[in-house]
Design goal:
single chain; alpha+beta; two-stranded antiparallel ribbon; 7 helices
Length: about 220
């Protein structure tokens, strides 16, 4: 609607031989308007290159990347791998056409530690400098949770727990937060709602109800 513009209309007078002898523009045609995306071509190109390098290195089934301006939520790049030739869309597979960044549901893994820490900071139960004495492993219900790499007991601050992606540290902070406050902040951060990005078929994420939490 924005790009297409609008047709005009003329009233034309013909003589008996069918030749035009007069024309009057009743409604002028209008040009379509320009649309400028928030996509930055240089960042988009680099994101696609980085995805291709990582996807091929790790023999991944697929990869996606989103680069955003945190000050205003503008999307500067949104890329998927494997890619397809936009000049030959007909030869692309369904998997290649899918936008994994907005239409794919997955477990966030260690990236969710940032939100556990953010919730604890917002609740005022920790500060970045708050230190914890962390054992090598930690037991939660029937699970023994360990680090990605074995280590002896250590003292880490909240900032260091996040920087080192400590499983034991994140669990310790999460237990201090408690499931009610943790659940509250998951919803505050919008994990059960679509973002409303202007792209079709966006997933909204799967968040279990509080009573469905495991031990």
């Amino acid at each position: 609607e924005t790009l297409g513009g609008g047709d005009g209309r003329q009233e034309v007078v013909h003589d008996a031989a069918g030749e035009t002898i007069g024309a009057e523009t009743v409604l002028p045609a209008t040009n379509g308007k320009d649309i400028r995306l928030t996509i930055d071509a240089a960042i988009q190109a680099r994101a696609e290159e980085a995805l291709a390098e990582a996807g091929e290195l790790y023999a991944a089934e697929g990869a996606t990347a989103v680069v955003m301006n945190p000050r205003n939520a503008e999307v500067l790049a949104i890329a998927n791998w494997p890619a397809y030739d936009p000049n030959d869309v007909g030869s692309a597979s369904e998997a290649e056409l899918a936008n994994r960044a907005t239409g794919f549901t997955y477990e966030p893994g260690s990236t969710f530690k940032a939100f556990t820490v953010a919730a604890a900071l917002e609740e005022g139960i920790v500060e970045p400098s708050t230190a914890f004495r962390l054992p090598s492993t930690i037991k939660v219900a029937d699970r023994e949770i360990e680090e990605a790499h074995a280590r002896p007991p250590v003292t880490l601050t909240v900032a260091e727990i996040l920087a080192q992606s400590s499983n034991v540290g994140a669990v310790t902070i999460g237990l201090g937060l408690g499931k009610e406050r943790f659940d509250h902040w998951i919803h505050e951060f919008g994990f059960d709602e679509p973002t409303g990005i202007d792209f079709p078929a966006e997933e909204q994420g799967i968040v279990p109800a509080l009573e469905e939490y495991s031990g």
